[in-house]
From TrEMBL:
This is Protein kinase domain-containing protein. The lineage of its organism: Eukaryota, Fungi, Dikarya, Basidiomycota, Agaricomycotina. Pfam families: Pkinase. It comes from the Eukaryota. It comes from Rhizoctonia solani. GO terms for molecular function: ATP binding; protein serine/threonine kinase activity. GO terms for cellular component: cytoplasm. Gene3D superfamilies: Transferase(Phosphotransferase) domain 1. Residues 1-201 form the Protein kinase domain.
């Protein structure tokens, strides 16, 4: 981030121009980025936010931008909230702006009145699924059908075959177990984002790859 500016009466974040487009565009073109490193970068970025008391609220491939060097950075903080809001005398909004396929069950059914770290982990898991599967979660279902599947059936996306994203069967099993944990219907059953990152790094070691740098 470069700084702040006032635009049309509102405060705006100023960031470098991301000429490489969004993560969603890269996935649509056949995922030109290293998938495992991309997931680690995402998890580390979310961990940074959570450590500083910030919940993003709308994690999805369209809100992840890619630098010319192939690093991914979270963007669009329009739904972000501060978990330190009361202490800092900030105000928060009760309005929701989310994408159905990446929204946690408690967000979809209205049980949660605000975005939380747990709903961020759910959305992060769905975003990582998108990276690994080359398609969004519940790709063959309408938005309305997705809501029914998640809220009433407590459904999860089917396991992808991972293609050439991962080489070893053990690595594939570990990633799938991690994703399923992120998809847990009960928010308290989901891993913390730091645990997500560590699990990804463990798989990276299994695969013998090198990690990348991270940005927010």
């Amino acid at each position: 981030m470069l700084g702040f500016a006032r635009f049309r009466g509102q405060i705006a974040l100023v960031t470098p121009w991301m000429g490489a487009g969004s993560l969603n565009q890269h996935i649509s073109r056949g995922m030109l980025l290293p998938p495992l490193q991309t997931c680690i970068q995402l998890a580390t970025a979310v961990e940074y936010l959570h450590t500083h008391g910030i919940v993003h609220g709308d994690i999805k491939p369209d809100n992840v931008l890619v630098t010319e060097q192939g690093q991914v950075q979270l963007a669009d903080f329009g739904s972000a909230i501060s978990t330190l809001a009361t202490a800092l005398n900030f105000t928060t909004t009760n309005s929701f702006n989310f994408t159905t396929r990446f929204a946690a069950p408690e967000v979809l059914n209205g049980e949660s009145r605000t975005f939380t770290k747990e709903s961020d982990v759910y959305a992060l898991g769905m975003t990582m699924f998108n990276v690994m599967a080359d398609q969004p979660p519940f790709a063959d279902m309408s938005a309305a059908a997705v809501i029914v599947e998640i809220i009433f059936r407590k459904g999860q996306p089917p396991r992808p075959d991972f293609g050439n994203k991962l080489q070893g069967d053990v690595a594939k099993d570990k990633i799938w177990d991690l994703l399923r944990g992120c998809f847990a219907y009960d928010p308290e059953s989901r891993p913390k984002v730091g645990q997500v990152k560590e699990a990804l790094i463990e798989v990276e070691r299994l695969e013998g790859t090198l990690g990348g740098e991270v940005g927010v």
